[in-house]
Amino acid sequence: MNRLVIALLLSLCTLHVALAQIPAAPNCAVDQPPPDAGIFATPGGFLLVHPRNAQLSDSYTGCKVLWVADAPGRFIRLTTLYFENGRLRIAQAYEKSGASRGTCKLPGQSPGCEGLESNPLAALKLATWPRICMTRPDAPQCKKEPD
C-alpha cells in the first residue's frame, strides 16, 4: 500500500468523534460504489472513488466517498468527505463493519485530524481510472492516464 493511503488510514484510524454531522447533500447517502465510481490503484489494492473528477466543479458542495476493494464485489466504505464550495469541511471515517469510527470538522486541528487537509486522498480532485480497469486492465481506457 502506498504512503498516501497509509497516511490517510492512519489519520482516519485515530479520529475522535466530534459534533460535526454531514448534511444532506449530493452523494452523501451513497453507501456502495455506483458503476461510474473510479478506481485509485495502490500497491496493496484498489480504492473506489465517487464521484469522479469529471462530475466535480471547483466549487462543488456535496460528498465524495472512498471504499476499499476488499474482495471481488465486496467494498468497505473507508470515508465520506463533505466539501462546501470546493473545500473539505467534514471527514467521516468508518469501521470495517460500517459503524462510524469518528468525524473531523475542518478547518481545525481536532485530535487525530492533523494533516488530513493536506493528504491528496482527501482532496476534492483525485485522478482515477474507470472502474472497468479493476477487472480488464487491458481495456483501451485503462491505457490512458487517470483523470
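[next item in queue]
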Amino acid sequence: MKKILITALILTAILMIFSCSKKNSTPAAPAPANAPVPFQAMAVSAGAFHSLVLNSNGTLWATGENAFGQLGDGTTNTRNAFEQVMTGVSAISAGWYHDLVLDNGGTLWAAGYNTYGQLGNGTTTQEDSFVQVLTGVGAISAGGFHSLALDNNGTLWAAGDNSNGQLGDGTMTNTDTYVQITVMAGVSAISAGGLHSLALNNNGNLWAAGDGGNGQLGNGTTGEENSFVQITGTTGVTAISAGEYHSLILKSDGTLWAAGQNTYGQLGNGTTTQENSFVQVLTGVSAISAGASHSLALKSNGTLWAAGANSVGQLGNGTTTEENSFEEVLTGVSAIAAGGSFSLAIKTDGTVWATGNNAGGELGTGDTNNRLTWTEVYHQ
C-alpha cells in the first residue's frame, strides 16, 4: 500500500511540473510582416545615385534617386530601401540616370532618362516603367547618356548621346534607336562610360571610341574618336570597365591596367597624374569596376581593393581620405560595382554590401545617411 501511495505522489508531481511548464512557456513570436531579408544576389550595378540588384531567382530590385523613372517602378518617387521591380531577369546595367535590363529570353528592356534617346526606343521621352526595345541581345552596358548592346552574333549596337563620338558609328549625331557599329566584328564585351565607350573583341584586343580629353581611351592622345579604334599594346584583355573619365582593363594574366583622369588617384598607380596610355597598377585581379572618380578591383582570393575619390566613404575604408594606391577594404567578395560616389559588393554567400554616398537612398539602407564602412543591405 505504501509503494502504491509513493508511486501516485510521484506521478502527481510529474503532471504538476508538466502543467506548469506548459502554462509558463512562451510561444515563438511570428516574424514581422516586413522583416528584412538577406539577398541571394548574382549581380549588382550602380548608377549615379541609384542601385540595382539581381537576385538569384531572377528578380530585379532597385533603390535610390528616381526623378527620371530610372528605378522602373512606374513612379518617379525616390526610394531608400530596395523594392522589387521586375522578374525573369538575367543581366542588369545602371547608367547615370537610366537602366538597361536583359530578360531570360534575350530581350532588352530600358527605363529612365531619355533626353538623348539612350533608351533606344525611338523617342526622347523618359520612361518610368521598363519598355521593350531590342531582341536577340547577349550583353548590355548603360553609360552616362548612351547605351551599348551586344547581340548574340557578336555585333555591337549603340543608342543615345553621341556628342563626343561615343557611339563609335563615325558620326557625332545622337540617335534614339540602336544603330549597328560595323567597324569591328566578333565583339565579346562592352562597357559604356561617361562620354566614351570600350569594346573587346574575341581576340582579346581593346577598341575605344568617344571623348579622350582625359586620356581615357588609352591611345596615347587626348583627342576624340567618333569611330572605334584599336588600342595598341592592349592584347590579351579579358575584361573592361569604363568610368566617367577613366578606364580599367584586365589582362589574362590577372594584371590590372588603367588610363585616363587621375585627379583623385582613381588609377591606383600611386600618383595623381593623368595617364594617356594604359599603365599596370595591380596583380592577381579577377574583376574590375570603374566609377565616377574611384575604382574597385576584386582579387582572385576574394579580397576587394579600392582607390580614388573617397569624400563620402565610397572606398569603404572607414575614412574620407582619397587613396592613390589600391588598398584592401573587404574580404569574401564575389562581385563588385562602382557608382557615382558609392560602391556595391556581393559576398560569396550572396549577401549585398554597400558603402559611400546615400543622399538619394542609393545604398538601400532604409535611410539617407552616408556610410564610411561596408554595410550589409537587405530587401523585404
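[queue empty]
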